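Batch manifest, entry 17 of 40.
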Amino acid sequence: MVGNTQARSIAPARAVLASAAIAALPLLFGCGEPKAEAANAGPPPAEVKVVTIRAQQVALATELPGRTTPRRVAEVRPQVTGVVLQRLFTEGSEVQAGQQLYQIDARSYQAAYDSALAALERAKATQTSASQLAERYRSLISAAAISRQQLDDAAAAEGQARADVAAAEAAVESAHINLVYTRVLSPISGRIGRSAITEGALVTASQTAPLATVQQLDPIYVDVTQSTTQLLRLQRALASGELRGADADQAPVRLTLEDGSEYASPGRLLFSETTVDPGTGSVTLRAVFPNPKRQLLPGMFVHARLVEGVDARALLVPQQGVARNQQGQPMALVVDAAGKVEQRNLTVDRAVGDQWLVRDGLHDGDQVIVEGVQRARPGSTVHATEAAGAADGAPAAPQPPRPAAAAGAAPRAETAALAGEAKGAGK
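Output type: structure tokens
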């Protein structure tokens, strides 16, 4: 009796479990539909930011290294031998042309000058006597009072006396020049450096060491070097019409100093050398700059920025949008009208600020990816937005929901639970 009762009580329980399992079968077979939909949907397009490339007019400049050179340099050397009595300038000051710098002992030169003057007076007196004698003989020759030989001798003495006077005058001039040279004068206006000698020093007319150096610093020259490769490329670009020549009056030369600061006053290009340096393969260009404050000193290393020409249809690409492939060639990722990513190999000319000047590989209107390059692959579809219109620090775009995966999780859990209960009951 007891066994029959237990059997009757278990039978309804098994029937209930069987019904629950049958009811769960549609859920079990239906859970595959959201999973298939999720697989077909795929990941959403990657979010990237692009810059639309537009042709624009750009003045192309080149930066060349160079050094400053004084416009004039005069090494002051003595022209006569003597002892320096005075130094008449302040070292490092501005001096004017003709200003006296040193005084050399002039006593011996004054005496030589005085002696030359006395010799000149004696020569003049001798010339006067010889001239009078020759004149007297000319009047007597007509009366046959003297011989012809006597007249010829008197005329020769007169000519010799005249030559002696000329020699004495030259000696006076030479002595005067030496006397003037005892006053050492500045040949040009400019800034004088340190003095190489002091009072009491003996200087000679043939010495090679200068007493001091005067340099004209306003205006000042800047000599820069340009490689022949750059020069030939510029000439070809101008000849082909790729570049338009810049007006010299509208294309000043700018300087960048050693500390990175820019020199305030612009300069102008004077000329270019016609001979190539065989050691460096470059030519020298000279520019002149005003230097009223003496900020530029001779020998300073500077960078000169010269305008080469104007590109009327230049394509500039931000540098973050250009990468290098495995061969080291520049490349960029471009988004076409369908949202597909395309890889372009580029020919880059130079950097213009924080952008690259591209000669080949891009066209007007192309959209170059500048942000999100890591998420973009050639051939993939992306969602592109203009980088210029995006605000800095904007929040990331929300990800779309995935209802298919969420809907399939709950039915699978319920089915597993019901199946476990049925199995346990069967035991």
